[in-house]
Amino acid sequence: MSRRSAFVITCLAFGYAFLYVPIASMVVYSFNASQLVTVWDHAHSPTLKWFGALLHDQEILGAAWISLKVAVANATGSVILGTLAGYGLARFPRFRGRFAFTAMTTAPLVMPEVITGLSLLLLFVTLEQTIGWPAGRGIGTMIIGHMTFSMAYVTVVVQSRLATFDRSVEEAAMDLGARPVKVFFVITLPIIFPAVLAGWLLAFTLSWDDLVISSFTAGPGSNTLPMVVFSMVRLGVNPEINALATLTITAVTILAVGATWLTARARRHAASAAA
Amino acid sequence: MVTAIGRRAAGEPWNDPDARPYVELRRVTKKFGEFTAVDDVSLKIYEREVFCLLGASGCGKTTLLRMLGGFESPTAGRILIDGEDVTDVPPYERPVNMMFQSYALFPHMNVEQNVAFGLKQDRLPKAVIRERVAAMLEMVQLGEYAKRKVGQLSGGQRQRVALARALVKRPKVLLLDEPLGALDKKLRERTQFELIGLQDKLGVTFLVVTHDQEEAMTLASRIGVMDRGTIAQAGTPAEIYEFPNSRFVADFIGSVNLFEGRLVEDEPEFVRIDSAELGGTILVGHGISSAPEAALWAALRPEKITMSRGAPPQTDNVTRGIVQDVAYLGDLSIYVVRLATGKLVRVTRPNTARHAEPVERDGEVYLSWDAASPVVVTR
Predict the structure, then answer these.
(1) Is residue B367 classed exposed, middle or buried when 0-12, 13-18 and 19+ CB atoms within 10 A define those classes?
(2) pTM of the prediction?
(3) Domain A49-274 in CATH: superfamily?
(4) Are the beta carbons of A171 and B100 separated by less than 8 Å?
(5) Which of A174, A178, A273 sits opposite B151 (nearest CB)?
């Protein structure tokens, strides 16, 4: 028994090492004073100088601002569309073509991004030629592009929350005189709000990270942070990038933990309300 | 069992052909695909009544209740409440309120907000809402819990919030779906009487769905026993218990001994039934209407059979058997007696005092009953 558990622990250690050693080493090197990424400067490390340099890099700051705008707009739009889709799928369990609809909503989760990105690019170009909109590509087209896949994630999160939702709560509200639209906004939405917020955070992080679809749908002067980083790295890794990556990991971790916590809390609430 | 005959619904409006029904179902049918949940049901319920729909799960009682609430629309038939056809009226415009089996409280609101929700939908002035909510909470003894979140309440308290929320709008009819189903036995008994008290005070017509016959007996002015989408029998608890109209109803309400037989004497004042199962005849002290050779059953309640070790004086309605099983339940004991024909008969006897002659397993006993006790059913 003890031998087997030693084996299991070794397996686990290898697995986690495979996942996290690269990230950990990068975080450590972000505090390295040396200009050379792979050489540890014992004399002056650890230092925060790359974090400081980052704050004065206008290109990176500008890109981060664009990324933020795109991520917030994308998350908000995805939450609206995804909640509607999730509500529809959860509330009309038997309609013709339900299977096709479910498959179509979740397909973007598994669709290769290159294909999504390319098809969006072709669509935008064709639209511009035929109806004149969108005039060129930029933040707007990027937001639409990100929403196509972020929305699918929100739909799945909202739909699974509604699957455990006691419908009689909505019926009770209707019985007490609330019309269906009011029931949705006053009863359903507040109860599933933690799931919706989790969906928002998920959509935000997906958009913040995205490179492929951004590259296809971006226009001149609308480079997002991942795009700038990618182009910088092609010219050689820069210690500033390590610092940026460390900040990004921190932010994403906080958001991911927050989203998980919200989902768990929503589930607990659902359980205690049903008890 | 406590029954509520004549306590509510002044007089017996169901026996008065001129009485105006308050809720009326006219030939209501509900189909889900191929499955018929409610099959051509007609029913009249009168003002201030407590009408219980009683049946096993899947008999259609909840579907019937949901159609009254407006959550299902009938495949055929009309529903009238206080003379108004509400068949096509959506739930949010019906003059009825429902108390759900799961209580369906709003988890993101406190007790007060839950109860006030319905009044807010009517856009009543804030002061009026506050006053009516406070009065209602006082009535269900939840005054001091007004600011609690519903997640912090016990099962019994949630049940009362649900009741207060449904009653505060003063509906014409309150629909209750298994109102006491989630409570434990002791609390259920107490709540039954609270519910009756509240109904008496407010004068609201109640329509209760339950699978618990004791609950139905205690609450109801009338019971409708449902079976496979139809109402098998509707009547006061005593009528249903003493004069069931079919083997199904006799067996569903309480327990019963059924003896299959055929008529051998058919007089206006009495009939005699020859039953092979009993190994003799049963004298029934009232006339019946049945075809002479048709199969029929004499239904005999276990508590109406007298058990003795010595031969009773009467010559009719006596048989003998061996006690096969005894179950001591505290207030009464159940005996299973095997007759010479092999038929098993259930007899109950209250444990009022130490019996002069204790009856034990494998002892031989005489069973006898009064001619007024058996009820004859033909289906």
Answers:
(1) buried
(2) 0.81
(3) MetI-like (1.10.3720.10)
(4) yes
(5) A273
